Amino acid sequence: MAEDEPVEAIVVDVPTRRRGAVVYIVLASLAVVALLFVFVFPTRSYLTQRHDLAQAESRLQLLRSQRKQLDREAAKLGTDTEIERLARETYHLVKPGEQAYVVIPSASTTTAPAATTSTTAVPPTSASHG
After folding, report:
1. Concatenated DSSP letters for 64-76?
2. Rounded to whole angstroms, how far apart are CA atoms 74 and 76?
3. Which own/partner pairs from 105-110 qualify as long-range (CB within 8 Å, at least 24 positions apart)?
């Protein structure tokens, strides 16, 4: 190098420093967004799914207990005793030889209560035979 040649100085101008800082901030922001996508959003979805699963299991338990109750009721409805009870209460049916009576409320009441039905067995009489 000759002594007459000027020495070049390395000068870093201010816009280059700002550009580096901006690039650093942008990369850091992208890293934060990437972490959100990788950890936070899946974790939130996981927690939501756990909550939904707990609700579904609770609902399933309720439905199973209701089904057991309905199975017991269905088994009960298949018995002759229950069929007879329902026929008497719902349809006011009587067995042969029984008579049905309807109790009519008195006229002095302002609201009419529901009519009640009772049945009594009538023993066969000898007068009807001859």
Report:
1. HHHHHHHHHHHHH
2. 5
3. none
- Taking only the tens place, the pLDDT of each residue in 7-65 is 665 655 556 778 888 889 999 999 998 888 888 788 888 999 999 999 999 999 999 99
Whose tokens are 């002594």? That residue is 3
Average pLDDT value for residue range 61-88: 95
- Contact between 93 and 87 (Cβ < 8 Å): yes
* Dihedrals phi, psi of 9, to nearest 5 degrees: -100, 140
Distance CA 59, CA 75 (A): 24
What pTM was computed for the model? 0.45
Please report, as a single letter, which amino acid is at residue 18. Answer: R
* Cα 85 from Cα 95, distance rounded (Å): 12
